[in-house]
Design brief:
Layout (H helix, E strand, L loop, with lengths): L1 E3 L5 E3 L17 E4 L3 E5 L9 E5 L11 H22 L4 E6 L7 E6 L12 H14 L1 H18 L5
Antiparallel strand pairs: 1-2, 3-4, 4-5, 5-7, 6-7
Helix pairs in contact: 1-3
């Protein structure tokens, strides 16, 4: 399957989530990586600070995560929330977990900092997907995305787990 990231990278992979395992395929947007998890800017939706936490191995079901992975995921979620509060002065976020059949699980954190108006708090992701084409064309938005990535990288620079 081929797809294009918000940064124009064309990636050919059987599992979109598994691109985090191959640093030669996906480079733009990577924020932080541990032995078990990858933290990146969402590569499908250009919303500043929209973080995707993906396991570094192919896991298609939440119950297949190891105790070590679950523990580290919990730590990373807390660190990401602190980073978002710190960088964006944004105390509210939306958390979403994806456990798709035959897919790669991932956890998404979306800062609700008002850069994009969300009309339905229960449909945050679908609204952002619908607005993605316009957000990609908005140069100011894309500059905010890049700055958010840089700020998040700086925040995570001194983190060890």
């Amino acid at each position: 399957m081929k797809f294009k990231t918000i940064f124009g990278e064309v990636i050919d992979t059987p599992c979109v989530g598994c691109v985090v395992n191959d640093n030669s395929k996906f480079n733009e947007g990577r924020i932080f990586q541990t032995k078990l998890w990858d933290i990146s800017q969402d590569f499908e939706i250009p919303y500043p600070g929209m973080i995707v936490i993906s396991p570094m191995r192919h896991v298609s079901n939440y119950i297949d995560l190891s105790e070590e992975e679950l523990h580290e995921l919990q730590q990373l979620i807390i660190l990401c929330k602190k980073a978002i509060v710190n960088i964006f002065n944004c105390p509210k976020v939306a958390y979403m977990f994806y456990d798709k059949p035959n897919g790669h699980i991932h956890f998404v954190i979306i800062p609700l900092h008002g850069l994009v108006e969300i009309n339905d708090k229960y449909a945050v992701l679908s609204e952002l997907f619908a607005k993605a084409p316009d957000l990609l064309k908005d140069k100011q938005n894309m500059q905010r995305v890049v700055k958010a990535i840089d700020d998040l990288k700086t925040y995570f620079q001194n983190i060890t787990l």
